[in-house]
Write a structure and sequence with these properties.
Number of domains: 3
Number of helices: 19
CATH superfamily of the largest domain: Zn peptidases
Distance between the termini: 62 Å
Strand content: 15-25%
CATH topology of the largest domain: Aminopeptidase
CATH architecture of the largest domain: 3-Layer(aba) Sandwich
Shape: globular
Bound molecules: zinc ion
Helix content: 25-40%
Structural class: alpha/beta
Number of strands: 19
Radius of gyration: 32 Å
């Protein structure tokens, strides 16, 4: 066995040695070497091998066994096997040269190329979501089904798409628009169709002035590799929050790349009059993205006052992301400092690759146009739709889900609206004698700016009821996003959802246990953590807005794809997950039938006075940028 394997190896070694000796003898230097050979020069030592050749022959004659051993050693020393047959390149220069043009394409062609390449290497296998643990045949809540939930969601998507078709640049079920009102009206009719009797639609003006963009345009006017007169217009720039505006027709200026816009990247630079390409990292989401800190740093003018900023999001497979550059907690007006817009990951990659090719003679020149205006509440009617379903105790569980949202708004917040509708349909069929606590299915508008909305007029209207009979706020938000398998080259949906984060404002042991049991029963991925800060519409039930001694709870997941077009374009939200979650919410509601408010306060801790948006935790996170 050893001999058989050893002999060819030995023969090969001899051939190599002979070649090496021959080269050495005629005094040739192994020149005109390929890059590969140059890289491996250290492993080929012709002169030394030549000197050892005579001795080797003697050893061979002495014993075949020794010869074999030598051949094996020689193979290792002389580089018979170590050529890495899979190395993409073996010198820095070769690697850089090979890759320079591999991905240098306008975003549309880039997408085609990467899709085709992925299809060559992988294929979908039709995986289904991990099922609930509770046997569906024994589940009293099994009439809540994925199909019902996805149908509701599709109606919400249809309304959003209509807004785009009708020319809205900032499209979706945007607060204070006719599309939000159509949503509220549709929900009103649905609630009535479930047989619910106490259904309301309360219109009110948007409580905060709203930004309405009318032009968001970005085009390359000249760049390396462009012919004279050639231009390129980006398809989907979006400025979703208030911005300084440009003159009509836009501003034209040289573009420069400022990376993440950290101070380290900006030191010594003069950005005066430039339009900046700024990488916006969604760490952990567009809600708390790195461009917030960086935009303000740029707008101070400490590095020269730029003419504008283009934020390039890092969200894969998302053409548009409604991300902010201002301060969290409602500090959007910071965005009035400089005109700004945002572009998707693929679009920004193209722009950066153009900037990679810049020379002093050939810069990248872009034109940026941002037009829009602030509109008052009177111009932007919003509203709430809700159904009140009484129970035996006289106390109520309020289930708020905001109906407004950016783009398709399935992740934020259509899937959770669908879940709330399914709960309303489900409980409408259960007689009052079997329901301990009342339920309020609240579908509020006016949420996104600043983030607490329709719950405020709702509480104002029902102040006394909320003071005396509010058992719990159970708030579902941003639910059902699939956790993608992401290996960079290969990306796919997986059979689990992104783990959820649990809110229980007073850390009630009973409530935490209840959510944990619901998660176990229905197979819901969640983090091993409870957080205590009301940060969305539930904030209205707590100081500084209202002092109701309220307890808010609920699951949420924000993450990478928040406020992006990924949720529908890439099927990011999975309704088998929403099915499990809707049943889990019903389980929580049913279990709450056995408890009173005192039980929920037992073992609880006070809610922090300071908003999370002004916390040290958030300052640390943003201070990293
Ligand atoms: Zn939301």
């Amino acid at each position: 066995m050893h001999l058989i394997m050893g002999c060819p190896m030995f023969a090969l070694t001899l051939i190599r040695i002979s070649k090496a000796v021959a080269l050495d003898r005629v005094g040739e230097k192994p020149c005109h070497k390929s890059e590969f050979e140059q890289a491996h020069r250290g492993k080929i030592v012709p002169a030394a091998v030549g000197r050892g050749f005579g001795f080797m022959k003697k050893v061979m004659r002495a014993t075949r066994w020794l010869a074999l051993s030598f051949s094996l050693v020689a193979a290792a020393v002389l580089g018979d096997s170590p050529e890495n047959k899979q190395a993409l390149a073996t010198t820095p220069a070769a690697l850089v040269e090979m890759l320079t043009d591999a991905a240098f394409l306008p975003p549309e062609q880039y997408l085609e190329k990467i899709e085709a390449a992925r299809q060559q290497h992988s294929a979908a296998i039709g995986l289904t979501q991990l099922p609930q643990y509770l046997d569906a045949d024994k589940d009293p809540r099994a009439s809540i089904k994925a199909r019902e939930l996805s149908d509701y969601s599709q109606t919400l998507v249809d309304i959003a798409q209509r807004s785009r078709d009708e020319g809205e640049i900032l499209w979706g079920r945007i607060q204070g628009t006719v599309y939000e009102r159509q949503t509220l009206e549709w929900i009103y009719r649905e609630l009535q169709s479930f047989g619910l009797e106490d259904v309301h639609y309360d219109p009110f003006p948007s409580q905060y002035p709203q930004w309405r963009p009318t032009t968001c345009a970005l085009s390359v006017r000249s760049a390396p590799t462009f012919e004279a007169g050639q231009t390129y217009s980006f398809k989907d720039p979006i400025t979703a929050f208030v911005s300084a505006t440009t003159p009509i027709g836009g501003i034209e200026a040289q573009m420069v790349y400022v990376g993440d816009g950290t101070a380290a990247e900006l030191q010594g630079r003069d950005l005066t009059g430039k339009i900046l390409l700024l990488r916006g990292r969604t760490e952990p989401s567009a809600l708390l993205n790195t461009a917030r800190t960086a935009y303000s740093r740029l707008a101070t003018g400490n590095y020269g006052m730029p003419a504008g900023v283009v934020v390039w999001w890092d969200v894969p497979n998302a053409k548009q992301v409604a991300g902010r550059v201002g301060a969290p907690g409602g500090g959007d007006s910071i965005g009035e400092a400089l005109p700004w817009t945002t572009i998707g990951n693929d679009a920004g990659l193209y722009l950066r690759k153009l900037l990679d090719r810049v020379t002093p003679e050939q810069p990248v020149v872009v034109r940026l146009e941002v037009q829009g205006q602030m509109e008052s509440g009177e111009q932007r009617m919003s509203g709430n739709t809700y159904a009140m379903l009484p129970g035996q105790s006289g106390d109520y569980i309020v289930i708020p889900t905001h109906v407004d949202g950016y783009f398709y708004g399935v992740h934020d917040n259509g899937a959770s609206v669908a879940l709330n509708l399914a709960l309303a349909r489900y409980y409408a069929q259960i007689p009052i004698s079997e329901r301990q606590h009342g339920l309020i299915f609240l579908f509020q508008g006016d949420h996104e700016v600043p983030g607490v909305g329709g719950t405020l007029p709702f509480i104002a209207k029902y102040q006394k009821l909320m003071e005396q009979n509010l058992l719990l706020v159970l708030r579902p938000e941003h639910l059902g996003m699939n956790r993608p398998m992401d290996e960079g080259l290969l990306v796919a949906k997986s059979n689990i959802a992104d783990p959820l984060m649990l809110l229980v404002t007073n850390r009630s042991p009973l409530l935490i246990d209840l959510f944990k049991r619901a998660a176990s029963r229905y197979g819901i991925a969640m983090g091993d953590l409870v957080y205590i800060d009301p940060a969305a519409d539930e904030a209205a039930f707590h100081p500084p807005y209202n002092d109701l001694n309220a307890i808010s709870s609920g699951w949420i997941q924000t993450g990478k794809f928040y406020h992006s077009t990924f949720d529908f374009d890439s099927g990011g939200v999975d309704f088998d997950q929403i099915e499990k979650l809707a049943r889990a919410h019903a389980f929580i509601i049913d279990e709450l039938g056995q408890v009173a408010k005192a039980d929920l306060h037992r073992g609880g801790r006070p809610v922090p006075e300071k908003s999370i948006y002004q916390s040290d935790l958030l300052k640390i996170l943003m201070g990293n940028n």
